[in-house]
Amino acid sequence: MKEIYLAGGCFWGLQKFFDQFPGVLETEVGYANGPDRKPTYEDVCGNSGHAETVRIRYDESHLSLTKLLEYYFLVIDPTSVNRQGNDVGIQYRTGIYYTEDDQLPEIMEVFGKEQEKVGDPLAVKVEKLKNFYSAEEYHQKYLDKNPGGYCHIPEKYFHL
Fold it and tell me: Which of the residues are catalytic?
């Protein structure tokens, strides 16, 4: 089992999006790469410096990191700074946070291909995970609990 942490705007939709893929074993929403103290949702909305992030545990024999990242780039605007859809603020920044140094070459290969495709500099930060704090329970699987909830990811991407 491997894991990767992806920030891509509101974490509700990103979690639901990744939960659909065979090989994804577990997802959890939380707050990453901010100050070394556990924030509340209110702290994060008040510019604590943390990014809304999804921890993805996956079976690499069924789903590669490359494929996960290709899916990720499908549902974000990689050139947008601190914004995805109608969500604006530092907590909505995009980022790929890795835990193992051997993930970096694969990440950078996908990142480079996306950069080439887009033609503009990407706003997606690639960095080692500094910290991750689980979000409150009501945020976990939020769109499953609240099917009409807002999401910046178009509905068509939840049925790939």
Answer: 10
